[in-house]
Design goal:
- α2 runs parallel beside α3.
- By secondary structure, the chain is α/β, with parallel strands linked by helices.
- It is globular and about 55 Å long.
- The chain is about 40% helix and about 15% strand.
- It has a six-stranded mixed β-sheet with strand order 1-2-6-3-4-5, with helices on both faces.
C-alpha cells in the first residue's frame, strides 16, 4: 500500500511523492561532457530491464562492470551484450567479488573482443573517460559494490 503511507496521507500526495522518487544507482543518469548511466542490474531480470530502458544513441556504449560471484553473471552478460560495445571489467570491493580477470574471460567467451581489465573503479572510470567519444555513453553496472563506489568517485 505505497510503503504504508495510504491512510495517513491523501492518496494524491502519496502518488505525487512516489512520482518524484529516485533511488541512487537505479537508472541514474549523470549528463555532462560524458553521459553516464548507473544501474545495479545484478541479476538477469534487472539487466534485461536495463537493456530495454536504455535510449538509443549514435555512439558506443562502454560498460564498466563488476559483479559478485554468487550472482547469475552469465545471465547478466547475455542480457547486456546486445547493447554494449566495449567492456571494462573491474573487481568490486567485496569478499564475494568475481575477479576482473575471470569476468573478462566470461565476457570474451560470449563473443566480445573489446574487453579491458581495470585495476580499480577509479582506474576504470579514468579509462572510460579516455575512450568515450562525444556521442558515447558509459554504463556502470553489475553490483551495488560497483555502482556505489563509482558514484562516490564521480561526485568527488
Amino acid at each position: 500500500d505505497a510503503a504504508g503511507l495510504l491512510g495517513t496521507l491523501p492518496a494524491e500526495q502519496v502518488a505525487a511523492a512516489l512520482e518524484t522518487l529516485s533511488v541512487p544507482g537505479r537508472m541514474q543518469r549523470i549528463d555532462g561532457a560524458t553521459n553516464w548511466i548507473l544501474d545495479v542490474a545484478h541479476n538477469p531480470a534487472a539487466a534485461n530491464a536495463l537493456r530495454q530502458a536504455l535510449p538509443r544513441i549514435d555512439g558506443r556504449t562502454i560498460a564498466l562492470i563488476g559483479v559478485l560471484q554468487d550472482k547469475d553473471v552469465a545471465g547478466v552478460l547475455d542480457a547486456l551484450s546486445p547493447v554494449v560495445d566495449d567492456w571494462l571489467a573491474v573487481t568490486p570491493d567485496s569478499p564475494r567479488a568475481l575477479s576482473a580477470d575471470e569476468l573478462a574471460d566470461l565476457i570474451r567467451e560470449r563473443g566480445s573482443e573489446s574487453v579491458t581489465v581495470a585495476d580499480s573503479i577509479p582506474d576504470a572510470i579514468r579509462q572510460a573517460r579516455r575512450t568515450a567519444g562525444e556521442h558515447d555513453r558509459i554504463l556502470v553496472t553489475g553490483s551495488f559494490f560497483t555502482v556505489g563506489p563509482a558514484l562516490d568517485e564521480l561526485d568527488a
